[in-house]
Amino acid sequence: MRYLLIPVKDLQQAKQRLAGVMNGAARMALATRMMERTLATAAQCQQADRVAVVTCYAPAVALATRLGLEVILEQQQISESASVDFGTQEAIGRGATAVLRLPIDLPMLTAADIDSVFAADDGQPVVILVPSRDGTGTNAILRRPPDIFPSQFGPGSFARHLAAARAAGISWRILENPRIALDLDDPDDLAICRQAGLF
Questions:
Q1: d(CA 191, CA 187)
Q2: What fold is seen in the domain 2-195?
Q3: What is the pLDDT of residues 77-124, one digit of tens each?
Q4: pTM above 0.90, yes or no
């Protein structure tokens, strides 16, 4: 069973790297719009057997419920990695044999992009990685089995996840996808999105 896992943190302090160009209310509004867009997009993908939102943020719970998505409720939010690993264990308990993690801040993401990652999963043990635009972050990761190694998100995560896959002796693949690669974090990303007419 293929799970799509989307962690959502409390958005009240979201996007601090945009503080120089947007005030707190604008940053929260932007993060909320991306959450809404990403979850709606995820609900449309065809290759995921189930889509689950990992969160303890009440607006995310309400939105996921409204869209018919599963909710994996956290008691606390420690880090992206902790949320993904907690959600993964819960998904395994619900029957997951492969888990794809996506963040909410992919403003160009389409349902076809999500399906393309699942399409690279042939049912054999594998790690599929989609790097960030600068090549250092992990914007998507599919693991089969889901808990083959712990998550290591943050700066330089792509190299760490690739090294973990190699150390685990599991097959790995790198997919290049420009829409998944663009995560909206800093003013340069925001400028690209505005040029594309997104925000």
A1: 6
A2: Spore Coat Polysaccharide Biosynthesis Protein SpsA; Chain A (3.90.550)
A3: 999 999 999 999 999 999 999 999 999 999 999 999 999 999 999 999
A4: yes
